[in-house]
User: What shape does this take?
Amino acid sequence: MRAKAFRIYHGSVLKSRDGIPGPTTPPPGTDMAHEARTARSRFYPVTIAYTAYALVVLALGVRADARTAILFMVAGTVCWTLVEYLVHRYILHGRFPDGPHWLKHRLHRVFDPSHGDHHLRPWDGRHVNGSVDTVPFAIMLALPSLLAPLPTLPVFVATILQCYVIEEWIHYAVHFHRFRWRYFAYIRKHHLYHHGARGGDVAFGLTSGIWDVPLGTRIPSNDRKALYRRPRGEGHPRRGPFVANLRIPAHGEPSARRADPAACRR
Assistant: This one.
């Protein structure tokens, strides 16, 4: 069982054929604690590898030239917020139909099965986080960056990789936990709206909705008001009607407490 958690998982949904499906609810008896463990175990190796690499490079970069290194850390963090948006919108939600050319066929094989199953089964731990399948892309970024002075591009790429780790753990937490921090309440509503009945083409930011605003994919105004409004005297936003339609249970809850699947589908 443990070996299966670490293998690269290929989904059954092909986006060029099936589009991005609406969500289904967990079957009765689904063990949400097990699903959460599966999601965590798939991402532990990447977390350790990328964080270790980032800590070493960032420490050496700051030691060599602290001011330059800090500037590139800030630039990498800002850049990541755009990268996560673009990858989510155009790669994870993009359609990659098969074709005779080797590049088109390869893009189809790599990207077309990605992310559709996550929308179909947002409670399934096999589909929540990335895994070792991101390592080739990390290597393609990290190795060329080492040709530049250490406090510049190497620090920039190391920051990108560490931001990816942080984003994936936020994404994991959104699907499996209910922390009461104000930021978490906001980003959970934002992301679950994206999974809901009207959200498939909006709310692509994973750690914030910043880039959704200028790039035209912000949650519609009326829905935002319903989603984020707080009753007077309460410290946290209440769960809006669109989040209520997609009831992803925390791993301590029984799977029988679910919304009607028909209410979640487009």
